[in-house]
Automatic annotation (TrEMBL):
Transmembrane stretches, start-end: 21-44
Keyword terms: Membrane, Transmembrane, Transmembrane helix
Protein name: Cache domain-containing protein
Keyword Membrane included in the entry's annotation: yes
Lineage: Bacteria, Bacillati, Bacillota, Clostridia, Eubacteriales
Top-rank taxon: Bacteria
């Protein structure tokens, strides 16, 4: 083994100590690198599992909301009071009274039973005129300008807040045509709305501290935890998002986990800063490194 030039001429005990110290340092460095790698892998696995579980939870709850709304709409459109009152409004407008409207509103409230994630239920005529609503105040023009291309569609909109008439809140709503079960003639439309706050509360109430949002097929944010504005374009988009049903990718110093929500053609996103991995990886070694550095200084001082 060749002695380094800077150690030539040094006393033998110092040469032996220097060689031992160099070998020990190399071994410690290799062990530290291996340990860091193991810790990083474990942290990555834990964070990945946590993010995937968070996505699954949001997916499950959102699916529950939509399935519940769908079931409520089915109950509403076959309800005798809804059928009769809507038909009366369409065919005998002059005989339709405020009492008819109040009875229909009461029937709607009875069906939905103050479900917490339902903002409102509206019934419209075949000409899109509002017949009855559980909203207070009522959004008289909530179907104006909406193209209804099929028997049932999901869309986002804004409604007047029940707390402040000067404000509007974002909602996700189901709009469905319904027909007379006796004649098959189209009677009108039922609209059931879910406030965006009910959707965002799904992930706001979890223990996961990562940033979460939901985007549509264009990347526009439809629900948010507040980090990015609603309806803005998600800044960390990647083509991988639209190619796969679920997965993750690295972008802008972030790790983005995503899951496709087929019913709405939306993507649920959990964004994790990559700094969390490096912080978790290196932080435990700061005391160790400091201790090693201090000890090496003391040994060097004692030898010299």
């Amino acid at each position: 083994m060749r002695i380094p030039a800077k150690m030539e001429g040094m006393p033998l005990n110092k040469q032996i100590f220097g060689s031992m110290f160099a070998i020990s340092s190399a071994i410690i460095l290799l062990i530290s690198i291996a340990t860091c790698s193991i810790i990083f892998t474990n942290v990555m696995d834990l964070e990945t599992k946590s993010s995937i579980q968070n996505l699954e939870h949001i997916n499950s709850q959102l699916d529950f909301f939509l399935t519940s709304v769908d079931n409520y709409s089915k109950s509403i459109i076959v309800n005798a009071a809804v059928q009769d009152t809507t038909n009366k409004f369409n065919t005998k407008r002059q005989k339709f009274s405020e009492m008819d409207q109040m009875r229909l509103k009461d029937e709607l409230n009875t069906i939905i039973q103050s479900t917490s994630f339902i903002y409102s239920v509206n019934i419209y005529s075949d000409s899109k005129q509002l017949i009855a609503s559980t909203e207070v105040p009522t959004n008289e023009d909530s179907l104006s300008g909406i193209e209804i291309s099929s028997d049932r569609i999901w869309l986002t909109a804004k409604k007047i807040s029940i707390y402040d008439r000067n404000q509007k809140i974002p909602v996700l709503m189901l709009l469905q045509r319904f027909y007379s079960y006796s004649t098959g003639k189209m009677l009108g439309y039922v609209e059931i709305s879910i406030p965006e706050t009910a959707i965002s509360s799904i992930y706001e109430n979890t223990e996961n501290e990562n940033n979460t949002c939901i985007v549509d097929s264009t990347g526009s944010i439809q629900s948010t935890d507040g980090l990015y504005p609603l309806y803005s374009v998600y800044p960390n988009l990647d083509n991988a998002l639209f190619k796969n049903k679920s997965g993750f990718y690295f972008i802008n110093n972030n790790i983005v986990f995503y899951k496709y929500f087929e019913k709405l053609n939306w993507y649920i996103i959990t964004q994790v800063s990559s700094n969390i991995f490096f912080a978790a990886d290196l932080l435990p070694y700061f005391p160790f490194c400091f201790h090693c550095r201090l000890r090496s200084c003391n040994l060097h001082h004692s030898v010299t």
